[in-house]
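Researcher: Quick sanity check before group meeting.
Model: Go ahead. Protein one:
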Amino acid sequence: MIVLAIDTAGTGCYAALYDSGQDTVLGAAGADIGRGHAERLMGFIDAALEAAGMTLRDVHRIAVAIGPGSFTGIRVGVAAARGLALALGVPAVGVSTLSALAADRQAGSPLLVAMDARRDEIYWQRFAADGTEASPPAIASVAQARGIAAEEGCAVAGSAAALLREGAPPESDGVSIATVARLGARLDPESHLPKPLYLRGPDARPQAGFAIRRA
Protein backbone atom coordinates (compact mmCIF):
# COMPACT_ATOMS: atom_id res chain seq x y z
CA MET A 1 0.00 0.00 0.00
CA ILE A 2 1.28 3.45 -0.94
CA VAL A 3 0.57 6.07 1.72
CA LEU A 4 0.81 9.81 1.21
CA ALA A 5 1.64 11.30 4.62
CA ILE A 6 1.13 14.96 5.48
CA ASP A 7 2.23 16.87 8.58
CA THR A 8 1.42 20.55 9.08
CA ALA A 9 0.51 20.32 12.77
CA GLY A 10 3.58 22.25 13.97
CA THR A 11 6.00 24.74 12.49
CA GLY A 12 7.09 22.19 9.90
CA CYS A 13 5.36 21.39 6.63
CA TYR A 14 6.16 17.89 5.33
CA ALA A 15 4.92 15.28 2.87
CA ALA A 16 6.13 11.76 2.10
CA LEU A 17 5.28 8.70 0.01
CA TYR A 18 5.56 5.45 1.96
CA ASP A 19 5.37 1.83 0.80
CA SER A 20 3.89 -0.17 3.69
CA GLY A 21 4.74 -3.50 2.06
CA GLN A 22 8.44 -2.65 1.95
CA ASP A 23 8.39 -0.37 5.03
CA THR A 24 10.21 2.22 2.96
CA VAL A 25 9.86 5.96 2.45
CA LEU A 26 9.99 6.39 -1.33
CA GLY A 27 10.18 10.16 -1.39
CA ALA A 28 9.82 13.06 1.01
CA ALA A 29 9.91 16.83 0.98
CA GLY A 30 9.32 19.69 3.38
CA ALA A 31 10.88 22.20 5.72
CA ASP A 32 10.41 23.92 9.07
CA ILE A 33 8.68 27.00 7.67
CA GLY A 34 6.99 28.46 10.75
CA ARG A 35 4.05 29.89 8.83
CA GLY A 36 2.54 29.70 5.36
CA HIS A 37 1.55 26.03 5.36
CA ALA A 38 -1.40 26.63 3.02
CA GLU A 39 0.87 28.24 0.43
CA ARG A 40 3.63 25.62 0.60
CA LEU A 41 1.97 22.25 1.25
CA MET A 42 0.95 21.33 -2.32
CA GLY A 43 4.42 22.19 -3.57
CA PHE A 44 5.96 19.83 -1.01
CA ILE A 45 3.48 17.09 -1.98
CA ASP A 46 4.45 17.52 -5.64
CA ALA A 47 8.15 17.35 -4.69
CA ALA A 48 7.61 14.17 -2.64
CA LEU A 49 5.74 12.57 -5.53
CA GLU A 50 8.51 13.51 -7.94
CA ALA A 51 11.18 12.10 -5.60
CA ALA A 52 9.22 8.84 -5.42
CA GLY A 53 8.67 8.73 -9.16
CA MET A 54 4.91 8.57 -8.63
CA THR A 55 1.69 10.47 -9.24
CA LEU A 56 -1.34 10.93 -7.03
CA ARG A 57 -3.02 8.06 -8.88
CA ASP A 58 -0.52 5.68 -7.26
CA VAL A 59 -1.67 6.61 -3.74
CA HIS A 60 -3.86 4.13 -1.84
CA ARG A 61 -4.27 6.08 1.43
CA ILE A 62 -3.74 9.53 2.91
CA ALA A 63 -2.36 9.91 6.45
CA VAL A 64 -2.36 13.31 8.14
CA ALA A 65 -1.11 14.59 11.50
CA ILE A 66 -4.16 15.94 13.36
CA GLY A 67 -2.49 17.56 16.37
CA PRO A 68 -2.52 18.78 19.00
CA GLY A 69 -0.48 21.62 17.63
CA SER A 70 -0.95 24.74 15.54
CA PHE A 71 -4.65 25.51 15.16
CA THR A 72 -4.26 26.89 11.62
CA GLY A 73 -1.64 24.36 10.54
CA ILE A 74 -3.83 21.43 11.58
CA ARG A 75 -6.76 22.80 9.59
CA VAL A 76 -4.59 23.16 6.49
CA GLY A 77 -3.32 19.58 6.65
CA VAL A 78 -6.69 18.01 7.45
CA ALA A 79 -8.46 19.96 4.71
CA ALA A 80 -5.83 18.92 2.17
CA ALA A 81 -6.01 15.27 3.22
CA ARG A 82 -9.80 15.21 3.03
CA GLY A 83 -9.84 16.92 -0.34
CA LEU A 84 -7.24 14.60 -1.85
CA ALA A 85 -8.93 11.51 -0.43
CA LEU A 86 -12.26 12.56 -1.90
CA ALA A 87 -10.76 13.37 -5.29
CA LEU A 88 -8.77 10.12 -5.46
CA GLY A 89 -11.46 7.89 -3.94
CA VAL A 90 -9.10 6.56 -1.25
CA PRO A 91 -9.41 6.48 2.57
CA ALA A 92 -7.80 9.07 4.82
CA VAL A 93 -6.72 8.56 8.42
CA GLY A 94 -5.74 10.94 11.20
CA VAL A 95 -2.56 10.39 13.23
CA SER A 96 -2.22 12.21 16.54
CA THR A 97 0.99 14.12 17.17
CA LEU A 98 1.16 12.59 20.65
CA SER A 99 1.08 9.06 19.19
CA ALA A 100 3.75 9.96 16.64
CA LEU A 101 5.97 11.44 19.37
CA ALA A 102 5.52 8.26 21.41
CA ALA A 103 6.41 6.06 18.44
CA ASP A 104 9.51 8.13 17.69
CA ARG A 105 10.75 7.94 21.29
CA GLN A 106 9.40 4.61 22.55
CA ALA A 107 12.10 2.47 24.15
CA GLY A 108 10.16 -0.56 25.34
CA SER A 109 8.98 1.06 28.57
CA PRO A 110 5.93 3.08 29.67
CA LEU A 111 6.05 6.65 28.42
CA LEU A 112 4.33 9.94 29.23
CA VAL A 113 4.32 12.26 26.22
CA ALA A 114 4.00 15.91 27.19
CA MET A 115 3.80 18.84 24.77
CA ASP A 116 4.13 22.46 25.87
CA ALA A 117 0.72 24.03 25.16
CA ARG A 118 1.82 27.46 26.47
CA ARG A 119 -0.23 29.48 28.98
CA ASP A 120 1.05 27.24 31.78
CA GLU A 121 -0.68 24.22 30.23
CA ILE A 122 0.47 20.91 28.77
CA TYR A 123 -0.96 18.43 26.28
CA TRP A 124 -0.27 14.94 27.58
CA GLN A 125 -0.98 11.24 27.06
CA ARG A 126 0.30 7.99 28.55
CA PHE A 127 1.52 5.06 26.45
CA ALA A 128 2.22 1.48 27.51
CA ALA A 129 5.55 -0.25 26.92
CA ASP A 130 4.25 -1.74 23.67
CA GLY A 131 3.27 1.71 22.37
CA THR A 132 -0.49 1.36 22.83
CA GLU A 133 -2.46 4.22 24.33
CA ALA A 134 -2.83 3.95 28.09
CA SER A 135 -4.95 7.10 28.46
CA PRO A 136 -6.80 9.49 26.15
CA PRO A 137 -5.09 12.71 25.04
CA ALA A 138 -5.75 15.54 27.50
CA ILE A 139 -4.74 19.03 28.57
CA ALA A 140 -3.69 19.97 32.10
CA SER A 141 -1.94 22.73 33.98
CA VAL A 142 1.81 22.34 34.48
CA ALA A 143 1.21 21.70 38.21
CA GLN A 144 -1.35 18.98 37.48
CA ALA A 145 0.90 17.39 34.86
CA ARG A 146 3.82 17.33 37.32
CA GLY A 147 1.64 15.37 39.71
CA ILE A 148 0.66 12.95 36.95
CA ALA A 149 4.30 12.44 35.94
CA ALA A 150 5.37 11.87 39.55
CA GLU A 151 2.54 9.41 40.14
CA GLU A 152 3.27 7.43 36.98
CA GLY A 153 7.02 7.30 37.54
CA CYS A 154 7.62 6.54 33.85
CA ALA A 155 9.84 8.14 31.23
CA VAL A 156 8.75 11.56 29.97
CA ALA A 157 9.20 12.82 26.40
CA GLY A 158 8.20 15.91 24.45
CA SER A 159 8.76 19.65 24.64
CA ALA A 160 7.26 19.82 28.16
CA ALA A 161 9.48 17.08 29.60
CA ALA A 162 11.82 19.62 31.20
CA LEU A 163 8.82 21.35 32.81
CA LEU A 164 7.67 18.14 34.44
CA ARG A 165 10.88 16.53 35.55
CA GLU A 166 14.03 18.23 36.75
CA GLY A 167 17.07 17.35 34.68
CA ALA A 168 15.07 16.19 31.67
CA PRO A 169 16.73 17.36 28.44
CA PRO A 170 14.91 19.93 26.31
CA GLU A 171 13.09 18.43 23.34
CA SER A 172 11.09 19.60 20.36
CA ASP A 173 7.67 18.36 19.29
CA GLY A 174 8.83 17.63 15.76
CA VAL A 175 7.90 14.17 14.57
CA SER A 176 9.24 12.13 11.70
CA ILE A 177 7.03 12.21 8.61
CA ALA A 178 8.00 8.55 8.18
CA THR A 179 6.41 7.81 11.55
CA VAL A 180 3.20 9.58 10.53
CA ALA A 181 3.16 7.42 7.40
CA ARG A 182 3.85 4.15 9.26
CA LEU A 183 1.19 4.78 11.87
CA GLY A 184 -1.26 5.87 9.20
CA ALA A 185 -0.74 2.64 7.28
CA ARG A 186 -1.73 0.59 10.35
CA LEU A 187 -4.77 2.55 11.50
CA ASP A 188 -8.37 1.63 10.76
CA PRO A 189 -9.88 4.36 8.54
CA GLU A 190 -13.30 3.77 10.10
CA SER A 191 -12.16 4.63 13.62
CA HIS A 192 -9.40 7.16 12.89
CA LEU A 193 -11.05 9.79 10.75
CA PRO A 194 -8.95 12.80 9.72
CA LYS A 195 -10.44 15.40 12.05
CA PRO A 196 -8.49 17.96 14.09
CA LEU A 197 -7.51 16.96 17.62
CA TYR A 198 -8.17 20.23 19.43
CA LEU A 199 -7.71 19.92 23.18
CA ARG A 200 -8.18 23.66 23.68
CA GLY A 201 -10.52 26.05 21.89
CA PRO A 202 -9.32 28.70 19.41
CA ASP A 203 -8.09 32.08 20.64
CA ALA A 204 -10.64 33.99 18.57
CA ARG A 205 -14.04 34.54 20.18
CA PRO A 206 -17.20 36.06 18.66
CA GLN A 207 -17.72 39.65 19.82
CA ALA A 208 -21.41 39.41 20.56
CA GLY A 209 -21.54 42.91 21.99
CA PHE A 210 -20.49 44.36 18.65
CA ALA A 211 -22.78 42.33 16.42
CA ILE A 212 -24.61 44.30 13.75
CA ARG A 213 -28.37 44.02 13.89
CA ARG A 214 -29.82 42.45 10.75
CA ALA A 215 -32.48 44.33 8.82
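Researcher: Fine. The other one?
Model: Protein two, sequence then structure:
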Amino acid sequence: MSDRNEGPEHTPDGRYIVVDGVLWRATDPSLPEERRQALVNDLMDARRAVGAAKRAGDTGAEKAARTRVHAAKVALGERGPVWWNDGAPDYTRCKLANTRYAES
Protein backbone atom coordinates (compact mmCIF):
# COMPACT_ATOMS: atom_id res chain seq x y z
CA MET A 1 0.00 0.00 0.00
CA SER A 2 1.16 3.50 -0.64
CA ASP A 3 0.81 5.97 2.15
CA ARG A 4 0.20 9.46 0.82
CA ASN A 5 1.01 12.36 3.10
CA GLU A 6 -2.54 13.60 3.19
CA GLY A 7 -5.76 11.68 3.46
CA PRO A 8 -6.41 7.96 3.69
CA GLU A 9 -4.17 5.12 2.59
CA HIS A 10 -4.28 4.37 -1.15
CA THR A 11 -3.56 1.24 -3.14
CA PRO A 12 -0.28 1.42 -5.12
CA ASP A 13 -2.14 2.18 -8.36
CA GLY A 14 -4.18 4.96 -6.70
CA ARG A 15 -7.51 3.43 -7.68
CA TYR A 16 -8.76 2.87 -4.14
CA ILE A 17 -8.58 4.23 -0.65
CA VAL A 18 -8.51 1.75 2.21
CA VAL A 19 -10.88 2.34 5.13
CA ASP A 20 -11.02 -0.26 7.90
CA GLY A 21 -9.65 -2.91 5.54
CA VAL A 22 -12.24 -2.20 2.81
CA LEU A 23 -11.51 -0.74 -0.63
CA TRP A 24 -13.40 2.34 -1.80
CA ARG A 25 -12.88 3.81 -5.25
CA ALA A 26 -10.75 6.94 -5.21
CA THR A 27 -11.55 10.13 -7.08
CA ASP A 28 -10.59 10.15 -10.76
CA PRO A 29 -7.09 11.68 -10.82
CA SER A 30 -7.63 13.09 -14.31
CA LEU A 31 -10.18 15.62 -13.02
CA PRO A 32 -8.80 19.15 -13.08
CA GLU A 33 -8.29 20.43 -9.53
CA GLU A 34 -10.85 23.24 -9.89
CA ARG A 35 -13.52 20.80 -11.11
CA ARG A 36 -12.65 18.25 -8.41
CA GLN A 37 -12.95 20.89 -5.69
CA ALA A 38 -16.30 22.12 -7.04
CA LEU A 39 -17.60 18.55 -6.99
CA VAL A 40 -16.30 17.97 -3.46
CA ASN A 41 -18.06 21.16 -2.38
CA ASP A 42 -21.29 19.91 -4.01
CA LEU A 43 -20.86 16.56 -2.27
CA MET A 44 -20.38 18.12 1.14
CA ASP A 45 -23.38 20.44 0.65
CA ALA A 46 -25.49 17.43 -0.31
CA ARG A 47 -24.30 15.44 2.71
CA ARG A 48 -25.22 18.34 4.99
CA ALA A 49 -28.64 18.44 3.31
CA VAL A 50 -29.09 14.71 4.03
CA GLY A 51 -28.40 15.35 7.71
CA ALA A 52 -30.73 18.34 7.88
CA ALA A 53 -33.52 16.41 6.17
CA LYS A 54 -33.07 13.46 8.53
CA ARG A 55 -33.20 15.75 11.56
CA ALA A 56 -36.35 17.37 10.19
CA GLY A 57 -37.93 14.02 9.37
CA ASP A 58 -38.41 15.13 5.76
CA THR A 59 -38.11 11.93 3.73
CA GLY A 60 -38.67 13.71 0.41
CA ALA A 61 -35.84 16.17 1.06
CA GLU A 62 -33.63 13.34 2.28
CA LYS A 63 -34.21 11.37 -0.90
CA ALA A 64 -33.44 14.44 -3.03
CA ALA A 65 -30.26 15.12 -1.06
CA ARG A 66 -29.13 11.49 -1.38
CA THR A 67 -29.66 11.79 -5.14
CA ARG A 68 -27.34 14.82 -5.10
CA VAL A 69 -24.74 12.87 -3.10
CA HIS A 70 -24.85 10.06 -5.64
CA ALA A 71 -24.56 12.46 -8.59
CA ALA A 72 -21.51 14.15 -7.08
CA LYS A 73 -19.84 10.80 -6.35
CA VAL A 74 -20.47 9.62 -9.92
CA ALA A 75 -19.01 12.87 -11.29
CA LEU A 76 -15.95 12.38 -9.05
CA GLY A 77 -15.51 8.86 -10.42
CA GLU A 78 -16.13 7.23 -7.05
CA ARG A 79 -19.31 5.52 -8.30
CA GLY A 80 -20.65 4.52 -11.69
CA PRO A 81 -18.32 3.43 -14.48
CA VAL A 82 -14.69 3.01 -13.48
CA TRP A 83 -12.33 5.78 -14.57
CA TRP A 84 -9.54 3.45 -15.69
CA ASN A 85 -9.59 1.74 -19.08
CA ASP A 86 -7.37 -1.31 -18.75
CA GLY A 87 -10.22 -3.74 -18.09
CA ALA A 88 -9.31 -4.29 -14.43
CA PRO A 89 -12.30 -5.19 -12.25
CA ASP A 90 -13.83 -2.85 -9.71
CA TYR A 91 -13.10 -3.96 -6.15
CA THR A 92 -15.14 -1.22 -4.46
CA ARG A 93 -16.54 -2.43 -1.12
CA CYS A 94 -14.37 -5.56 -1.21
CA LYS A 95 -12.23 -6.48 1.75
CA LEU A 96 -8.61 -5.70 0.99
CA ALA A 97 -7.60 -9.20 2.11
CA ASN A 98 -9.79 -10.74 -0.62
CA THR A 99 -8.27 -8.80 -3.54
CA ARG A 100 -5.03 -8.67 -5.47
CA TYR A 101 -4.06 -5.70 -3.30
CA ALA A 102 -3.64 -7.91 -0.25
CA GLU A 103 -0.10 -8.72 -1.37
CA SER A 104 0.90 -5.06 -1.87
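Researcher: One line on it for the slide.
Model: The CA atoms of residues 70 and 79 lie 8 Å apart.
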